Amino acid sequence: MVGLDILISLIPGLPLLGFLMVSLFNKHLSHAMAAGIACGSVLVSFALSVLTFSQLLSLPVEQRSFHVLLSEWISTGNISANISFLIDPLSAIMLLVITGVGLVIHVYSVGYMHGDPGFNKFFSYMNLFVFFMLLLVMGSNYLLMFVGWEGVGLCSYLLIGFWFRNDAYNLAANKAFIMNRIGDLGLLLGVILIFIHTGSFEYADVFAGIPGMDGGIITLIAILLFIGATGKSAQIPLYTWLPDAMAGPTPVSALIHAATMVTAGVYMVVRNNLLYSLAPFALEIILVIGLATALFAATIALTQNDIKKVLAYSTVSQLGLMFVALGLGAFSSGIFHMVTHAFFKALLFLGAGSIIHALHGEQDIRQMGGLKKFLPLTHLTFFIAVLAISGIPPFAGFFSKDEILAHAFAHQPLVWGLAMLSSLLTVFYMFRLYFLTFYGQARASAQKMQAIHESPGNMTIPLIILAVLSVTGGFLNVPEILGGSAWLHQFLEPVTGASHAAVTVHPLSHATEYVLMGIVVAFSAVVIYFAYQIYMVKKSIPAAEGAPSGALQNLVYNKYYVDEFYQMIISRPLHWISEKLDVVVERLGIDRLVNSTGVTVVEGSKVLRLLQYGSIGVYIFVMVVSVVVLLALSLIN
Amino acid sequence: MTMLFLLLCPLAVALFLLVFKSRFAREIALSASVAELLASLYLAWGFDSQGGVQFAINQAWIPSLGINFSVGVDGISLLLVLLTTVLTPFIILSSFSMSNSRPSSFYGLILLMQMALVGVFVARDGFLFYLFWEIALLPIWFISLIWGGEGRRRITLKFFIYTLTGSLFMLVGLVYLYLQTPGQHSFELEAIYAAGQSLPAMEQGLLFWALFVAFAIKMPIFPFHTWQPDTYVVAPAQGTMLLSGIMLKMGIFGVIRWLIPVVPLGVQEWSHVAIILSVIGIIYASGIAIVQNDFKRLIAYSSIAHVGLIAAGLMTLSQAGMQGAVIQMLSHGILVFSLFYIAEIFFERTGSRVLSGLGGIRNAAPVLSSVFIIVMLGSVALPFTSGFVGEFLLLKALVQYQFATGAIAALTIILGAVYMLRAFQKSMSGELNSNTNDFYDLTTREKVILFPMVVLIIGIGVHPTPLLEISGAAVDNILSVMANYSASTN
Q1: What is the spatial distance between Cα A312 and Cα A310, in angstroms, rounded to a whole number?
Q2: Is B387 within 8 Å of chain A by CB?
Q3: Average pLDDT score over residue span B466-489
């Protein structure tokens, strides 16, 4: 096909162009035009992604990859990095999710950000984000991935601090950027080591070179790259920025902090599945961290009362589950859950945005309740998303979660047990959130309830689209025992197949799988019943701030004091040391030493006094003229 | 001819301005610096990146002492000349809003400084190099002394003595090398190279320190840096820009041209110490930058941190390290000039550079805010900005040299973000306050200065290869001197 290269380049190119147009002509564009440019560019990007995807599908399995070389970037000596793209099954899936969900959220934002003075700026940042995110997944080498990786971090920073008058938001933005940079440091070191040991940044060359590398180096690289993932994908110990990132406008939370950017770590590990398959120790670490994060964040979500905070901790927990899949070597299962999660979590956030919009900024679920009849569409779509994330068949989350649990059981029943526990916690806090928000007494102030209204069409249509995807998304990869063909798994095979030689995923007997499925669904039903009893029958409302509560509950409500802990062991010591370096070492130490040496010299030198008080004009003049004269004389000679 | 023009044009105009006080001093100075820029671009136009030393002039000057007027450019020199000639007109333009009772002297000194800087970068004779090196010190000292802020007398005196002391070490080193040259003795670069390389390791080690101390003070790297923050703060904005944007590159350039190929054995022996000092400097200065409240002082410490990384990468004596150093010099010059200019804009508008007193400026100045963000991103080395290319190459060189050293140096990625984001937040975000209430956005003149910098920051970040190509052959040349030398001694 003629010009496929150009079309592929346009996929990230158009959002970049959109960014440039909207940001450069910010003041001259009406809101409608800016929104049109921003949404239009992502729309065409999406269409091109679909086209590219269909082209890929039309090829025989072993030929499914396009390589597009756009230009040289950094080239010196033996170092050479290009701006070039790789479209293969993995990046094609990512493209569809990013541009598809991205488009839906762009459209939603037109309604959500309506009337905001920073409307145009918002859309320019969103387009810039889509550009960098596409670069991250399309880049055919590590360095370009790193560009995207840091670029999305920048956009995240800009959008978290979008309402920059609020200093708490600014601090949240700084925190996100800095914690991400801690991860980026690991990633950068990993990329540099990869280059040093393979002589290339290109995936193809590196993957060819990895099997010949020393095992210790492979493990070191794998761990360094994963440190990058813990930053971007909010895993222990670098997850605390994500809940704070909810300071950004809600569409940002949906797109960047749920559906796409935070899954970059998952993409990166899957991209490097060959490397990880040769580093079993690193996989073990991923499994443990993922599992711990999934459980830890789920317990925090149980006690949060800010609707976006609940969803944020839920995201951290679900990302943990994805890393569990990766740690088990079930790479395509991780991607599958990433895709379904993108649908239902984006839907949850947009639904939350619709509620917040209707209640004029209210985010506390204790001040909600009884919204079902006022927001019928939001309610219905939110309910679908709750079912999907809870893993109720046949909604999307059921299939993707079930797959991960099956792999966990095959690995070790304990891992399965813990992963299931985190899933059950998820079911509980999601239904808690759902019941408290939509049922019972309307607890919002009369003033807020008076003007309550369902959101406009440009916000509800995105909800409907995502709801449809949350219902049907699971059918991408229906397992064989349920009569499917595991399509996604097959499709990703050219990418994930690289690790098969080293990582074996134990197959379970069909009978075991059915039993496991049954257990999970049954337990989920029980948990829903509990939640129903507490929040519907007894109509409990979470205690107000400062009300007495048990020590354990207090600990969880305060997020285990992890932020305070980091403050104590990192922030404060850093400032203390800096302060001491400045005041003691620098001024009382080094500088005083220098000065005392200097003073001795100055005292003894009267010549320098002349210098200091002499007339500049004369001094410089004499000096320069003498040089020139010398020069001239000698040249004449 | 172009070479001669590059040296004589600023010199002639400078002398004119110093002697005949002109009412149109700033216009004359700006025209001269633009002419200089055009001349240097013409030089770049005719430059062949594979061609070795070009536009050379070599005239006997003081034959009895073997001193020649020998100048010429290779790729590294050319890039630094370009840095000088590009920044100078903008530095002059940035001073147009300053109230100045002696403009003629001020601009004369700036142009004299420019002549000396260009001279340092093109000199191919040891004596000439030393001469330009010292001439460069005088104008900047006077600029800081006369137009500086509070405490200028004490601080500039310290600056003067400190750097002069360093230069004296260098002079001793150069004269010693000169005396080692055969026959009639010569200060020719090639002769100095040959003389230095033939010395035994012990003597090369001593010479390394004599030369290195001069360069280390100029950059400055830890622990030779304590003159720098005070001087940057007290000097007028243009003085600070000259010092940080261009003059500190004299030190790095000195290492590349007048140290590494001169005493390769000494460098091999002691580069590890230099790397350790430089890496300590990165962490140390970044740490101090975190708690600074005066924006100018914060930039001063960040500059020490960035220069530390350049020096450390350079001292790995690898292709990536040296190329990284060269491109990072350019990037640092552009970024630090822009940062100091932004600090100056704060000062002009509010009478203060104290971060805790600023705030909310984004509300009043969205264009300045966007520019500041881009400069900040360059400074924290975000990919696709000029800062990334150099930092990446330098870190690659250091990781290859030794993983732990590279990992520690790479902490700059985190620490840089900590202090820069803090500075941005404190000054730009939040609500306007009584200090910043009357803040207004960039004027046309300020845009004319800052927009080209933004274009350079992103342009170099996205397409650095032409610059890397210009310096590539020169870098390979220096490294091959090292390689040949160690091969022949083995």
Answers
A1: 5
A2: no
A3: 82
Separation between Cα atoms, residue B454 and residue B452, nearest integer Å: 5
The C-alpha atoms of residue A73 and residue A79 are separated, in whole angstroms, by 10
With an 8 Å Cβ cutoff, is B383 touching chain A?
Answer: yes
Rounded average pLDDT over B387-394: 95
Residues in chain B closer than 8 A to A159 (CB atoms): none
| Residue from the list A154, A624, A631 with its beta carbon closest to the beta carbon of B15 | A624
In sequence order, the 6+-apart residues with CB closer than 8 A to the CB of B312 are: B274, B275, B278, B279, B282, B394, B398, B405, B409
The pLDDT assigned to B406 comes to 94
Q: Across the strands, what pairs with B59?
A: B69
Q: Distance between CA atoms of B329 and B322, rounded to whole angstroms? A: 11
A630 touches B at CB < 8 Å: yes
Residue B46, φ and ψ in degrees, nearest 5 = -90, 5
pLDDT in tens, A42-91: 999 999 999 999 999 998 988 888 999 998 999 888 899 999 999 999 99
A629 touches chain B (CB under 8 A): no
Query: Which of A32, A29, A18 is closest to A128 using CA atoms?
Result: A18
Q: What is the pLDDT of residues B235-294, one digit of tens each?
A: 999 999 999 999 999 999 999 999 999 999 999 999 999 999 999 999 999 999 999 999
How far does the CA of residue B295 sit from the closest CA of chain A (Å)? 15
Q: Give the H/E segment covering residue A369.
A: none
Residue B20 has phi, psi (to 5 degrees) of -95, 105
Q: Do B399 and A192 touch (CB under 8 A)?
A: yes
Q: Does the structure's ipTM exceed the value 0.85?
A: yes
Using an 8 Å Cβ cutoff, are B166 and B218 in contact?
yes
pLDDT class of A318 with cuts at 50, 70, 90 = very high
pLDDT tier for residue A612 given thresholds of 50, 70 and 90: low
Q: At what angle do helices B412-428 and B264-290 cross, to 10 degrees?
A: 40
* Burial class for B40, CB neighbours closer than 10 Å (0-12, 13-18, 19+): buried
Does the model's pTM come out above 0.80? yes
Over residues B184-226, the pLDDT tens digits come to 889 999 999 999 999 999 999 999 999 999 999 999 998 889 8
CB of A167 within 8 Å of any CB in chain B?
yes
Taking CB atoms and an 8 Å limit, are A616 and B105 in contact across chains?
yes
Instruction: Output the pLDDT for position B95.
Output: 92
The tokens describing B101, both together, are 């009772």
Q: Tell me, letter by letter, the H, E, C secondary structure of A106-175.
A: HHHHHHHCCCCCCHHHHHHHHHHHHHHHHHHHHECEHHHHHHHHHHHHHHHHHHHCCCCCCHHHHHHHHH
Whether A634 and B363 lie within 8 Å, measured CB to CB: no
Calculate how close chain A gets to B46, using CA atoms only, in Å: 22
Residue contact A620–B377, C-beta within 8 A: no
